[in-house]
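Notes to self after the call with IL:
- keep both proteins in one doc
- input above output, always
- annotate only the second one for now

Protein 1:
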Amino acid sequence: MWLTDLLRKLTKGPNVGETFRDYIGCYLFGTEVAGAPKPEYIGAPATLEQLEVEVRRYLQDFISTQKGTVTPEVLTVQDFLADLPQRLFTHVHGDMSQPFISFPSIDMFIRKGVRQRRKENGKFVE
């Protein structure tokens, strides 16, 4: 049984929150701009709670940069922030290949991935 677990982790990577050597499974979130060659990654939290905090902060920063203008995008983001925990739960337990929030020229995505674990003084700090 342990051999199949090892092979799965080597080929697919650990699940969100699980560790394997120097790596941890996480949620990746960022934006994809139409026509851009690569997505812009914003964060890689290892738990759903951390994901909620980081996505909330990012969306609130987006609203604050709009300088009081009420656009359809701002209204959409405000709606998402109103029930963010439920929307995140639904998204991460559903089809994560679809954008989390979609605007005409930009999509915000949340996907599962793997990142290297952080070390401080020779010990992992996750």
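Protein 2 (the one to annotate):
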Amino acid sequence: MKKIVKIITSIIINVYVACSAFNYYWYSDFIPAKIGITYAIHIGGESHFREGCGAAIFRLSDATADAISRKGIDFFNDAIYSRKSKARRYTYSSWKETPVPNSWTSDGTWPGLDCSGASRSLLSQILLAASKKGSYYSSKDEAWIVVIPSFKLVVFSYFG
């Protein structure tokens, strides 16, 4: 009996690790390559028959945070293509400095972030940073990205 419990536990752990690794690589591909990330802080969302929403929140690398502090908005001049592809579907609009537009937060949070399942404290931190100067944002079809150098966060959200 103990051997069966060990085998089942091992299978569950291996499936969890494999799913976590897949999610990290899947969502990190939507972040422009120039924006260095180190690990996922939170990945979550909801999936329906053809649509879904959610967010992947990553830790910004120290090197990228330093480069952004030196260059400001100019750091993002060539950061419009995701790691995944240079196809139009994966191309972000020009980057802007926060605050994000009121239309993003008219319902409290912007699309995808509200169904991410992230903790209330993490969402509060993100919304605070997005409401004042010092962070940077962009968007593409059905996706939004905010880089918050002061908290070393990269927030990718999607809806659609």
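Annotation: The beta strands are 37-47, 52-60, 96-97, 136-140, 143-148, 153-159. The chain has a mean pLDDT of 87.
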